[in-house]
Amino acid sequence: MSLDxxxxxxxxxxxxxxxxxxxxALAGPYADRYELAGFCDVNxxxxxxxxxxxxxxxPAYAAxxxxxxxxxERIEVVVVCTVDxxxxxxxxxxxxxxxxxVTEKPMTTDADRARRILDARRRTxxxxxxxxxxxxxxxxxxxxxxxxxGLIGEIGSVHFEWLLDLRHGADYFRRWHxxxxxxxxLMVHKATHHFDLVNWWLGTRPETVYAQGNLFFYGDRxxxxxxxARDYARAHxxxxxxxxxxxxxxxxxxxxxxxxxxxxxxxxYHRDQNVFAPGVTIEDDMAVLVRYTSGATLTYHLTAxxxxxxxRVCFNGSEGRLELLVEExxxxxxxxxxxxxxxxxHGEAVGDTAGRTELTLRRFWEPARRxxxxxxxxxxxxxxxxxxxxxxxxxxxxxxxxxADATDGARxxxxxxxxxxxxxxxxxxxxxxxxxV
Length: 437
Description:
It is a single chain. With 437 residues, this protein is α/β, with parallel strands linked by helices. The protein folds into 3 domains: 3-131, Rossmann fold (3-Layer(aba) Sandwich), CATH 3.40.50.720; 134-218 and 280-380 and 391-433, Dihydrodipicolinate Reductase, domain 2 (2-Layer Sandwich), CATH 3.30.360; 220-267, no CATH class. It has helices at 3-6, 19-27, 44-54, 66-72, 87-96, 111-124, 138-148, 168-171, 180-183, 186-189, 191-202, 220-226, 254-259, 264-267, 383-392, 406-425, and strands at residues 8-13, 34-41, 60-62, 77-80, 100-104, 128-131, 155-165, 206-214, 285-292, 297-306, 309-317, 320-329, 357-363, 369-371, 429-430. Strands 14-13-12-11-7-10-9-8-15 form a 9-stranded mixed β-sheet. The chain has a 6-stranded parallel β-sheet with strand order 3-2-1-4-5-6, sandwiched between helices. The longest helix has 20 residues, at 406-425. The mean pLDDT is 93.
């Protein structure tokens, strides 16, 4: 049997920066199992850029021709990397055409869209995988193994604090994510990662959510109140943006220039909007309280304007406590530039403790014990490479059950949806009233 007859034909829809993770993997280490057979995007320039990077000539289709691409190119697998609110459109159409799907997180942005996906999966029997790369980070796997071992007993509560620094956090307020209609806000677009981790770590699902959220730091009102506002809509070509530490210079990055600055004529999308300009409808400071079906509770806080980037997670059990600290940057330079030719927006790691990761076990009546933390290389602490191997490599048994399907995607989503609903109502929200999963 020839190589071409055994490879599955795969298409990528949404050719922004994140799609590069998938296009390079499919054209590189997994080319023996998959044939990259189609690109689809609202912007033809971005598809041409990916072909240029790969040195390939993958057929490119406009967004309105997605169905034609699936049929003409005989697509079997679709990778979805589009704007969050459009995920369901491509996922459902792909399944109805007989394709399996891999989608970026979040799976979608609201309950109706999630139900469309779950209904289509039941109706078609096709497979949907959600790309939760944080499940594959070695330290997160070590947490799951430690909890499963029973070393701290039954889990009663979890505290999860996530900090986005002034470089990375601000980036959500420069892009399409700043409009909640596109992204569901950070409770959906970003915190979906974290809510999924808790579901997976504890082997449970959310039941009731109470939350408070605020646009405290970014946006036009806060910018004026603190004297941070500047009179420009987007940074490129705006003298008013000179010296603004919150402005991103697309021309500093060959990747961002190619994908966005040079592509503006096709779709008029500006990747470098002013974080203190009007039009921000998402929150930047969010506190969430969740009760799970297991009886455990979660206190979660996301701050998008912190001086350093990372997270702390603490598990309180009937026999002790497990503490995780991940410090991705210790402070953010006001003059920090994009890193080389990448599109990375994380803060620049500076100082002796940059990149510190600690996992500490504190059992009752015993001294604290620092656990060995597996080292991971590459994006998201090594999670990206391991996730790609699981998605596209040779199938292998996984005792940690890291593969996430559409049900997992919906269960992570519903915590954020309930938090958003609680922001509006001021009271607790039962997740099953939004999405019964």
